[in-house]
Amino acid sequence: MANPNLEQGAQKEILEDLHGRILRGAPGWQRDAFVVFQPLVTRLLLKALGPSADADELLDDVFLAFFESAGRIRDSAKVKSYLVSITMNRIRREIRHRRRRALLFKLIGTPEDVQQRPGTDDPKARAALIQLHRVLEELDADERSAFLLRNLEAMPFPEIAEVLHISESTAVRWAQRATEHVMKRVGRNALLCDYVRDRSEPT
Amino acid sequence: MNDRPKPSAEQVSRLFRTLADQHADERARLSADRSWRRVEAKLKTREPSADMPGLKLLATSARRWRLAIPVAAAALALTGLVVWYGGTAETLTYTVQGDATDRVDGAMLDGASASGRDGAGWLNTRATNARVAFSDGSSLDLGPESAIQLAILGPHNAQAHLGRGHLRADIQHTDTTKWQFIAGPYQVNVVGTRFDLDWDGSALDITMHEGRVVVDGPGSRHWALGAGAREHLIDDSNSASERDQQASNSGPASKPSALPEQSAFQSPRDNAGTERSVQPRSPETRQTPEARQNTEAQHSSEARSPELQWPALVAKGQFARVLKDAKELHIEPSSLNERALTALGQAAGYSGEPELARRCWRQIRSKHATRQGAARAAFYLARLAEQQGDARQALEWLGLYAQEAPTGSFAAEALGRKLVLIRQLDGAGGRAREVAKEYLRRFPEGAYAEIAQATIKPG
Questions:
Q1: CB B387 within 8 A of CB B354
Q2: Which of B11, B29, B317 is facing A23, going by the closest CB pair?
Q3: What is the DSSP letter of B333?
Q4: Helix B71-84 vs helix B53-65: angle between axes, to the nearest 10 degrees?
Q5: Would you tell me which of B135, B172, B268, B277 could form a disulfide with B228, CB atoms 3.0–4.6 Å apart?
């Protein structure tokens, strides 16, 4: 949501109003939906694909798909999860596509040119974020999606299961496997360990 | 050697989340306007197809039926029909599947298609079932030895005359859906629902699976039926009406369905026991007066309690049902509490009934008015005034909303609309600039940030 600090009742009210306007086809509802959800979708894309990702095309795809089918959403409480579901489908497809492309580059010896974008003004934080994402990139599309939703979005497992179209037990299994992998890799990186501890200690 | 303890998974996740959020939020903020312009441009290139409801109908229908019928054949047949009959893409079309014949010449109709232009013929089934599949996803399943006459009256508007036999109707709901089923002296009015009809020439059986219908019968009598209700209506010209009403989980129909059980005929809720049954309102019911009192009390307190039902219906986008309820029950806004009034006001507003919506919102402000409710009503009244072209009135309501709920859910929207309206009335002068500055200070990423920027720095 555009403003995560809004109280739940206010968010519900906004979504109900938006849903009504979607169903009625009220002028400008797409713009309003974009304003409400663009930060969320951008956050999901960048968390899944890394700070260097060029997520513009994917963002466009997600919203165009949403605009095309949002009229079929029957319940205002489902608007957000419906959009997250579209986003996660695109993310998983993109991860698989990138893996195939990386393999191809490996085989034909062409380096993948990735332009690093500044993540934050703090160079240590930027380096840590890039390293954490490298660990995340080792996960397959399913585990990465589960880790993202659980650990980086604090989403409850039933909701994860819903947006990924899997059972709750599968969601738990994927997230656990991903967390174990991330922790193993972080544990081997002394600099990253230090940075996490330093940032976690109360000042 | 680093002998400090390893960080916990919670610590790693929290840090990762913080860093990623900072980065993503910054990217989202910086790119918001640019991204919207890009998406908007792409949206415009797609609009021609989105504006052709007929094509959308075909696409929706194809998705719905992809597991049940060969999509390509249906799409081709329907597309061909639109071209062949030279009609608009909005015409409702249908195809007949199964063992059905034309009543007049006895020709087999399996695979035949028709549109509204010539779709008023009679269809007969013989020993087996047949299905009539419509381009909007609706369908009629005919039992053996049944006869219907179909007339297509609009894109979501049709009439089916059940001459005899059994049919199961599954009508897709839209805000403009209007179907009528006629059997003898009875007329079943539908806006989107699923039910069974049996007509033997003297009695009509209705079994509701989803949604609701209103049945008009002889003597200007009406029956409103909801999911789970069953009705056995006898046309004996003496207004006799037998009730065979059971909850949906109370067992099979007393009269076996003429159709063999198929998965497509099973409502997911048929056996769940969660659907309520709606008691009939006919004064000719054969219940005892005491039982009738009980059922009427149940009817009013459970089945149609607006403050319980309407907010849920509005949340599901079923505005037409809320309005229909209000009209059927002759409900005046003055008799409702704030919760029901809010739902009715929203339903009316979204359904293009501004007068009713305005009465609801004014009622909330004048009578009930929790602080939050009154502010919300002011916001919706502003929207209605703006839709009616009364910018000054809209500004007054927006001003009230801002006073009463300065940090409310619609604060950003209210301030943005205020800016737009002031620009309309006074141009982008001093007053508009002040509002624009306030908007940018409070909502720098809001939907109206662009127009606020343009107000402050024209050109």
A1: yes
A2: B317
A3: G
A4: 160
A5: B277
